[in-house]
Design a protein that fits this description.
CATH superfamily: MFS general substrate transporter like domains
Strand content: under 5%
Strand order of the largest sheet: 1-2
CATH topology: Growth Hormone, Chain: A
Largest sheet: 2 strands, antiparallel
Oligomer: single chain
Radius of gyration: 22 Å
Order of helices and strands: HHHHHHHHHHHHHHHHHHHHHEEHH
Length: 449
């Protein structure tokens, strides 16, 4: 496979510049995802809430994905992928800039509204960008091409984690959660307003960057134009019926729901898990509780960044390995590895369990784009609606974190720390991904006979 077959159409139209600009969008939504994950812990502390209440951030965040995916698909079907990306960037920017009034109001719910609008934009972006990349070249290399573009998503995620750690968490007031509860109302309001201003700053900055990217893509020549047959592939009802009867697609949506749930729970609650492991150590060394908690949170986020570096590196490696191994079999093997590591998180615990949790990211690396590519591999002209179903499956990132948070709030379950037992949630998710990988390996094997 040469470079020309990936980035040139049969008519010789260049995909290079559009590919680069659209791939930048993968990094932009990665930034949003991973600057947001640590905010569950931050908002819980700022507003003196339980972990379950703080997890409403993820409910609002991934709820926006679910609610807007189908309208985004219908919009793209009516217009084109480029228009969908522009709409996504616009909504993303509006949501990010809404952090200014939310911080001034000083209430939790305006932030949830901002997250919801922001992720309505991300839903447009993902519903548009993934099939856009699949269309930029030969169908035979589409899954590899999408894996390559998706490799830049964790680069954005790394930037989000870095900003969260160095421009939010380290600049917030170092008071522990217990110390904040004991504050009088006036002191509490002063600390809260200062911390909310710290949180809003990076979101406003990314809003400005989004406006710049919006105009760059607006000026970009659209290299992928659907034929009349593609634009009129059938009424909505029959399209959904065809997709539902497609077993690879239907099971792919289910697998994607569980994968996204696993990814978000692991990356969100590594902060709680790491704090539960590290904070007692730091207090034992003589640190004040507030400093010990802040240091434990910061070091847990540092481990999350290391996990993301591993995730990013392995995605490039696994994309290369797909030249030699079937994507479906690699998906099954990687899911099995994550099942073993998650069992270590639950039952071994301590620093070893924490390192197992870092290792989970290594094997999550290929899952999202591989499930996406396998599910859309044979849907034909139903791609736009099919893509929407896979983006709606991101609802797993909304539904499952509050479930895990409720287990964490139980403190002790069956003699184990609640935070350890809570990782049974991603464990079940990885079992679902394993089953999908095995089923698709069987389908490929039977097709080749």
């Amino acid at each position: 496979m040469n470079r020309q077959s990936i980035l040139k159409s049969r008519e010789g139209v260049s995909y290079v510049i559009p590919f680069i600009l659209v791939t930048c969008c993968f990094a932009l939504w990665g930034f949003a995802n991973d600057i947001t994950n640590p905010m569950v812990k931050s908002f819980s502390k700022i507003f003196r809430m339980s972990v379950t209440d703080g997890a409403l951030v993820q409910l609002a965040f991934y709820g926006g994905y679910f609610c807007m995916a189908l309208p985004a698909a219908l919009f793209i079907k009516r217009f084109n992928y480029k228009s969908g990306i522009l709409m996504g960037l616009g909504l993303y920017a509006v949501g990010a800039l809404m952090f200014i009034p939310a911080a001034r109001i000083g209430n939790y719910y305006p932030f949830l509204a901002a997250y919801f609008i922001l992720t309505c934009g991300l839903s447009f972006l993902e519903t548009s960008a993934n099939p856009f990349i699949l269309a930029m070249g030969d169908r035979e290399t589409a899954t590899r091409r999408l894996n390559f573009a998706q490799s830049f998503n964790p680069i954005g995620s790394l930037c989000g984690m870095f900003v969260a750690m160095n421009f939010i968490q380290s600049r917030m007031n170092p008071m522990s959660s217990a110390e904040r509860v004991s504050l009088d109302q006036a002191s509490f309001e002063a600390v809260k307003q200062a911390d909310l201003a710290v949180i809003a700053g990076p979101y406003v900055a990314i809003g400005v960057i989004l406006i710049v990217v919006f105009f760059l893509i607006l000026m970009m020549k659209n290299p992928v134009r659907k034929s009349p047959e593609e634009g009129l592939s059938g009424a909505f009802g029959p399209t959904v019926s065809r997709l539902w009867q497609n077993r690879a697609y239907r099971n792919g949506v289910i697998a994607q729901f569980f994968y996204v749930g696993a990814q978000i729970t692991c990356w969100t609650f590594i902060i709680q898990y790491g704090t539960s492991v590290l904070m007692p150590e730091y207090i034992g060394r003589g640190m004040e509780p507030g400093i010990a908690e802040q240091t434990a949170e910061k070091n847990s986020q540092l481990l999350n960044i290391i996990a993301m570096v591993c995730f990013c590196s392995t995605r490039f490696i696994s994309t290369w390995l797909m030249k030699y191994f079937r994507p479906s079999r690699m998906l099954a093997v990687f899911a099995a590895a994550d099942i073993l590591l998650t069992l270590g998180v639950i039952f071994i615990g301590g620093r070893t369990g924490l390192y197992c949790l870092v290792g989970v990211s290594v094997f999550m690396s290929l899952m999202f784009p591989t499930i996406y590519g396998l599910a859309l591999g044979n849907v034909g002209n139903d791609t736009e609606i099919g893509a929407a179903g896979l983006i709606m499956a991101i609802l797993g990132g909304s539904v499952l974190p509050p479930l895990q948070a409720r287990i964490i709030d139980m403190d002790v379950v069956a003699g184990l720390p609640g935070v350890n037992v809570s990782f049974a949630v991603p464990l079940i998710c990885f079992v679902a991904v394993l089953l999908y990988g095995l089923s698709q390996s069987g389908n490929v094997a039977r097709a080749s006979e």
